[in-house]
Amino acid sequence: MIATIMVLMTMNGVLDFSDNENESRELLELAEPLEAPTNPGHTVFAQYITSDNCGYCYAYGSPAHNQAKNSLPDNYVYISYHSAAFGNTADAESGNIAPIYGVQHLGESGGAPKTSFGDATLNTGCGSNTCWDQYISSGGNMHSTAADYSVNVGQSDNGDGTSDVTVSASYIGSGTPASSITLYAAVTEKVCNSHVYADGSKGHNCWEAWLLNNGNYASNSGNTGGTGFETISLSSGSVSKSWTVPNNLVNGGATNMNVVAALFSGWSTSSFQEDVYAAADGTMQPPIDVSVVSFTVDNQDGARGFMTGDTLDLSVTVRNAGADTYSDGGSIEMCYDTQCFDQTALNTLSNAAGSTNTQTFSTTFDTSSIPNVANGLTGFKAQITGLTGDGNGANNVQMSYIEHDFTPSTDTPMAAGDIAIARGGSLDFDITGNPRDGVDTMATMTPEFEVAPTGTTIWESVWVDAPTGLTAQGTQYERYVFTVDPTSTASSGDYDVRARLTDARGQIGDWKVANAAFSLMNGLPQVIDPNQPDNAPGTCPVFPGLPTVKVETNERVPLAGLVCDAETPLSNLVITSQNPYFIAWHPSAGEIEVNFATMQWDSMGNPMTQGMGITINDGEDQNTGTLLFNVVENGQPRWSSVPAQSYDEGGSVQLGLTQFLTDTDTDGNPSSVMDLNLAIVSVEPAGILDAEIWPTGLMVTAIDDDAHGSVVITVRATDTDGQLSETPIHVHVENVNDAPRFDATGLENLMVQVDEPLELDLTSRLTDVDNDDAEIWATVTSNDGMVQYNPISGMLTATYTTAGQYMIQL
Questions:
Q1: Considering the domain boundaries, does residue 632 fall inside one?
Q2: What is the CATH number of the domain that holds 77?
Q3: What is the pLDDT of residues 500-543, one digit of tens each?
Q4: Which residues are registered as beta bridge partners of 547?
Q5: Confidence band (pLDDT; 50, 70, 90) for 406?
Q6: What is the CA radius of gyration of the chain?
Q7: What is the Cα–Cα distance from 186 to 82, expressed in whole angstroms?
Q8: Which of 2, 15, 137, 645 has minimal CB crowding within 10 Å?
Q9: Can you give the residue range of the structural domain that contains 693?
Q10: Are residues 506 and 651 in the same domain?
Q11: What is the DSSP string of 301-315?
């Protein structure tokens, strides 16, 4: 009875062995084996969830898939999502990585063995090595038109540590293929060397990498840039996609690599139930598969494109990627438009593993009959015809295209600024264009730019500074920038500009004219920019450099080369300024008189340049600018800030002064401060401290122990040139609270009779230099006798009953 129940449950796929991993398997061994699956008439694709520690997986699930594959080698395809433990089947080892997330796609995270046929709901549990046969025999949930699609997988070891993978898909039905198909593709280990079961056995087709769009792939070592599976259209009948992958993706190299591919209606990382149309893997290599593997079209002169009349070199390589040698003839043909213009017979090609499995055919083509057009593209076709028994017709044709090399066009020059150019000014013009082909770019074209008075044809480029290269190359803003820099003698008025481009083959575009592109204005007087002195009008004297003046000194500075008007002599200019340091303008001498009251310093202690804004009038127009001056020392000693000093009353302080002094000679050059003569000018207020100079420092001492307060000592430094400078030094004498004092004068060795009271008034004898005497509090102690002190009256009373010597302590 138990055996019968187990057979029925296994046949109906009800048991979930993934949740009963620890149950006895002895009952399962009573299950009757099913027959091998019958051929459903099309391919079946399965996704199998398995784990290292899943006993039912290595005992039944994996052997059952392998048995089905061996029974239907050309109709059954499966991939194993092999995790480390059945408690977490969605780990990275299983292939659950971005951007595909294979296990997550099936909505799974734990439990094995489980299999999804045709991306349908998973079938859970397996108790015999034929447990999956019934699903395969019944069609494997594949789409109803599965027989109308075919998939071929080609793998070829390149001998350099990589393999080329090509997946070809075809629609072979009489209807209409699905409008969009997702090409599921993965690299697997044919024998799962990297995923050994707990009993030491190994399954098959374990995931190692996803083959993604644009020739990329993703494995647990990283992603080369893909964002998802390739999406293809079979509206033209056939499509091929190729990848080059490292052999070390699999443990065992190229001989253990098995690429699995399937055609899906779509893909989601969080849900399944997609339509699956067909599948294939690398073990389903057709006996014969002759294909075009490369086809190139190149210009004999090395150019990327061609001009009418050029000769092109065409070269095609074909290869047999099949399992058997091909020797049944056929032709390799080269075609243009609808006509094939050259061909050669197909050689005998060894199988994919042989050394003579490729053949190359080369020829030439004269393009004199092809008219050159803007943005033109000419395609050539290489095809293999007359094959016998070829297992994959989708890869027998390949197109190669070459660009037309056409004459460029130029856009209207655009001014990059104010089109009214002042005298001595300049204006940039941006030159852009279109190569009108896929051969040239802005970087490969040579620009020209010329200027002429508006309404004339006197074109010239003597004012024009040409660029050395592109600006913003590689961006949407790339352009050539020409600078119009009029000479000082150029006539004022409006000017036209024109530009043209010449491509790398010497094809010259037409001139593009911009009328009244700019106006040259009347010359204005100007202050020459010290950072760009070469921009001064050509008639101006050479820039002499920044003038240097002494601080606190009237200085006259020649302005030749500092201020200029291309049309007006310096002596005819009127220069004024609101700057308080401006003294006068002396036009006949061409000199400006200034007196800078202070120097300015940067954070490093270096003197800074100072500016003076001026207004310049040439009788017609006026302009403003800033004259810059190097302001240097005038030779006078300089004090830096001397920090305030302090000490307690009755104390003293010493301070070295040279650290706060600098000095220069009459030319403003640094000189030694050790040559300075230091003297005290004043001490205010007096009566608190004494101050004196010792060689290079200041000595301050207290007058007595009680004097305190704040004092300002003025110190003068005089250099060898007789120039002097003074600085105040603030000194604070801190008040220290002194103890009250007792005047014991006349109280030593007093004599008094026994039993006679001694009375002393201590009020006048108690004093406090820091506080009110009335606030003094005194206490009296004695070694004997009766002693009393009245703190209110200040009277001390003592009476002794025995003769002797006594001491009273206050």
A1: no
A2: 2.60.40.10
A3: 999 999 999 999 999 999 999 877 889 999 999 988 877 789 99
A4: none
A5: very high
A6: 52
A7: 14
A8: 2
A9: 638-734
A10: no
A11: TS-SSB-TT-EEEEE
Instruction: Tell me: pLDDT of 594 over 60.
Output: yes
How far apart are the C-alpha atoms of 436 and 403, rounded to whole Å? 10
Per-residue pLDDT at 13 exceeds 50: no
Question: Is the pLDDT at 323 greater than 80, yes or no?
Answer: no
Segment 495-502 mean pLDDT: 98
pLDDT tier for residue 785 given thresholds of 50, 70 and 90? low
What is the count of structural domains for the chain? 6
251 and 102 belong to one structural domain:
yes
3-class secondary-structure state, position 282: helix
In this structure, are 614 and 673 located in the same domain? no
Scored b (16 or more CB within 10 A) or e, 121-151 reads: ebbbbbbbbbbbbbbbbebbbbbebbbbbbb
Mark whether 713 and 762 lie in a shared domain.
no
What tokens were used for 526? 């100007």
pTM beyond 0.70: the answer is no
Round to whole Å and give the CA distance between 46 and 205: 11
Instruction: Judge contact between 297 and 380, C-beta under 8 A.
Output: yes
- H or E element, residue 134: helix 133-137
Kindly report which listed range (54-63, 221-230, 740-749) carries the lowest average pLDDT score.
740-749
Res 318: pLDDT: 95
Mean pLDDT of 182-206: 98
Residue 16 resides in a domain: yes
User: For residue 316, which of 398, 379, 238, 255 has the smallest C-alpha distance?
Assistant: 398
Residue 386 and residue 329 in contact, taking contact as beta carbons nearer than 8 Å:
yes
- pLDDT tens-place string over residues 619-651: 878 899 999 999 998 888 989 999 999 988 889
| Residue 22, pLDDT score | 37
Position of tokens 């390799």?
A: 332
Residue by residue, DSSP assigns 65-130 as: HHHHHHHSTTTEEEEEEEESBTTBTTSGGGT--TTT-HHHHTT-SS-SSEEEETT-SPEE---STT
Tokens at 621, concatenated: 């127009």
Task: Decide if pLDDT at 23 tops 60.
Answer: no
CA-closest candidate to residue 417, choices 427, 402, 403? 427
With CA atoms as reference, report the closest residue to 127 among 32, 49, 22, 199.
32
Please name the helix (run of DSSP H) or strand (run of DSSP E) that holds residue 133, with its range, or none: helix 133-137
The SS3 call for residue 517 is strand
Q: Is the peptide bond before 113 cis (omega within 30 degrees of 0)?
A: yes
* Domain C-terminal end among 215, 250, 284: 284
633 found inside a domain: no
Residues 606 and 652 in one domain: no
What pLDDT is stored for residue 483 in this prediction?
Answer: 98
Handedness of CA 419, 422, 423, 426 (dihedral sign): negative
Domain boundary among 520, 543, 562: 520
C-alpha distances in Å from residue 736, one per residue of 272, 330, 571: 91, 119, 72
Q: Which of 713, 693, 710 is closest to 647 using CA atoms?
A: 710
| Beta-strand relationship, 512-520 and 420-421 | parallel
Q: Model confidence over 654-669: pLDDT tens digits?
A: 999 999 998 888 777 8
Statement to judge: residues 129 and 240 lie in one domain: yes
Neighbours of 171 (CB within 10 A): 25
Buried b (16+ CB within 10 A) or exposed e, 714-723: ebbbbbeeeb
Integer CA distances (angstroms), 138 to 144, 243, 388, 575, in order: 12, 34, 34, 104
pLDDT at 473 (0 to 100): 96
pLDDT (0 to 100) of residue 769: 72
